[in-house]
Structures are given as structure tokens and as C-alpha cells.
Amino acid sequence: MRILFFKGMWLRNKMINAIRNEDGMGVIEIAIIILVLIAIGFLFKEKIMQLVNELLDKMNVDGITS
């Protein structure tokens, strides 16, 4: 349990240092963009799966329609 706590504190300190340092802002922005894209994926999961299923239904596999 202590190891998990110290790893969490280490990660928190790394994030704080990255935010304070201007060089780390690019990394923070990329991480935020990735998190937003993941959240959008979860929100529209059903629509995405429906679109994928429609596309797979229209595809031909080795000349045989699926």
C-alpha cells in the first residue's frame, strides 16, 4: 500500500513539475487531447459500433459477401 501511495505522489509531483515547466505544456496538451478523444469514444460508442457494423456488412471478403 505504501508503494502505491509513493508512486501516486511521485506521479503527482511529475505532473506539477511538467505544468510549471513551459517545455512540459506540449505534453500536457497532448494528454488532454487524448483523454477528450477517449471520452468522446465512450460517449458515442453505440454510434461508432453501428457504423462499423454497417461498413462490415457492405464489405466483400474474397469475393463472398458477408
Structure in words:
This is Putative Flagellin Flp1-like domain-containing protein. The protein is mainly α and 66 residues long. The chain has a domain at 25-66. Helices cover 79% and strands 6% of the residues. The protein is built from three helices and two strands. The chain has a two-stranded antiparallel ribbon with strand order 1-2. Strand 1 (60-61) and strand 2 (64-65) form a beta hairpin.
Helices and strands in order:
Blueprint: H1 2-20, H2 25-43, H3 45-58, E1 60-61, E2 64-65
Antiparallel strand pairs: 1-2
Short key terms for the protein model shown above:
single chain; 66 residues; mainly alpha; two-stranded antiparallel sheet; 3 helices; 2 strands; elongated; Flp1-like; membrane; transmembrane; transmembrane helix; Putative Flagellin Flp1-like domain-containing protein
* Total helical segments: 3
Q: Using only CA atoms, what is the Rg?
A: 21 Å
Low-confidence stretches at least 5 residues in length (pLDDT < 50)? none
Structural class: mainly alpha
In short:
This protein has 66 residues and is mainly α. The chain has helices at 2-20, 25-43, 45-58; strands spanning 60-61, 64-65.
